[in-house]
């Protein structure tokens, strides 16, 4: 389906057709693309901005899109590169904190309030908590390891596909995934083991 | 294969990225090595948790936002009038270049083609000052040029 759509991009020149093809491809892949952006950034707003910017750039250069290459992998690559650029800029920028933010030593005293939106709040809280823990663990990984682990374990891509997205060899992908998982295991294992022990 | 090498291959084994020979050797090793098997189980546990992670809800209209941004850009003043401004800019640059070339010819009349203009100016000067009434026009021009070279 994808290759067919990509070949159409090259042959059709009208803007309406181009927009229609682009729209159908975005609708097909928007959820996994957002997942990738979210797991990279760690919050909704940044993920939304990252995805929007990536899609905007993809739309701008859609006419140059190479037929035969996968649209989702192309966008994964754009998202990854944008995130790396953003991360580099962020690293050199001084961190701004609000004076209204609670003090670190007082933060534990404030109870965390989670709204009950579901029929089974206990189950949803556990899922939410696990997701939060994994996200925190992912955020502690270096960007290269994080991207490789997300693309492999959450997005379910093969090493070859990941090597095309991250523009490195399969050997490098293999080593990044292994090191990333080992680091993540070290970070998450106490939590995961504890959860397993509590489960009846 | 030793334990160190096996542990480095565990992730690739879990992802089914090893060849059949490596898979066979690794499987045999796992049957006999408790430490490697423990690490294998921990990695598998982690991988399963990552795979079964609840997907985040996509709470905004991706394509709607993108279309809005494209439309805003299309209707912005800059994009609307950009095609009008460009020919004007090119015209302005052309006029500037022409003025520059003409003024440089007028200010530095050292070329042969400009001698006529210089000659006319010099002749009138000579007449006004009565430089030498006995010289012809051509001679007075030559004298002027020589005096400009050797003051």
Low-pLDDT runs of chain B: none
Taking pLDDT < 50 over at least 5 consecutive residues as the criterion, the unreliable ranges of chain A are: 1-8, 104-117
Shape of chain A: globular
Derived from helix and strand composition plus strand pairing, the structural class of chain B reads mainly alpha
Strand content of chain A: under 5%
Oligomer: heterodimer
In CATH, what is the homologous superfamily of the largest domain in chain A?
A: RNA polymerase sigma factor, region 2, helix turn helix motif
**Average pLDDT rating of chain B:** 78
User: In sequence order, what are the helices and strands of chain A, one letter per element?
Assistant: HHHHHHHHH
**What share of the residues of chain A lie within helices?**
over 70%
Largest interface, counted with CB-CB under 8 A? A-B, 38 and 27 residues
Q: What structural class should be given to the helix and strand makeup of chain A? A: mainly alpha
Please report which band the strand proportion of chain B falls in: under 5%, 5-15%, 15-25%, 25-35%, 35-45% or over 45%.
under 5%
Kindly provide the name of the CATH class of the largest domain in chain A.
Mainly Alpha
């Amino acid at each position: 389906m994808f290759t067919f759509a990509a070949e159409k991009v090259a042959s059709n020149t009208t803007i309406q057709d181009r927009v229609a093809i682009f729209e159908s491809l975005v609708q097909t892949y928007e959820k996994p693309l957002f997942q990738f952006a979210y797991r990279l950034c760690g919050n909704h707003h940044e993920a939304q901005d990252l995805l929007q910017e990536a899609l905007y750039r993809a739309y701008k250069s859609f006419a140059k899109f190479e037929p035969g290459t996968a649209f989702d992998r192309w966008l994964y690559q754009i998202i990854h590169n944008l995130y790396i650029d953003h991360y580099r800029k962020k690293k050199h920028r001084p961190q701004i904190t609000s004076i209204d933010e609670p003090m670190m030593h007082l933060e534990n005293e404030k109870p965390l309030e989670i709204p009950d939106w579901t029929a089974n709040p206990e189950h949803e809280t556990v899922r939410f908590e696990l997701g939060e823990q994994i996200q925190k663990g992912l955020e502690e990984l270096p960007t290269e390891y994080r991207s490789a682990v997300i693309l492999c374990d959450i997005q379910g891509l093969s090493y070859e596909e990941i090597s095309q997205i991250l523009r490195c060899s399969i050997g490098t992908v293999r080593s990044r995934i292994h090191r990333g998982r080992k680091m993540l295991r070290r970070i998450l294992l106490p939590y995961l083991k504890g959860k397993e022990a509590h489960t009846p | 294969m030793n334990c160190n090498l096996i542990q480095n291959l565990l992730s690739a084994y879990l992802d089914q990225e090893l060849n059949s020979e490596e898979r066979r050797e690794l499987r045999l090793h796992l049957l006999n090595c408790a430490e490697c098997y423990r690490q294998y189980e921990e990695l598998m546990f982690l991988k399963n948790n990552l795979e079964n992670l609840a997907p985040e809800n996509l709470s905004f209209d991706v394509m709607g936002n993108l279309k809005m941004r494209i439309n805003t850009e299309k209707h912005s003043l800059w994009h609307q009038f950009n095609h009008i401004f460009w020919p004007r800019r090119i015209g302005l640059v052309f006029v500037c270049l022409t003025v520059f070339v003409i003024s440089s010819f007028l200010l530095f009349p050292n070329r042969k083609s400009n001698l006529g203009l210089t000659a006319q100016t010099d002749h009138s000067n000579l007449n006004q000052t009565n430089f030498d009434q006995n010289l012809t026009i051509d001679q007075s021009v030559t004298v002027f040029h020589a005096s400009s070279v050797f003051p």
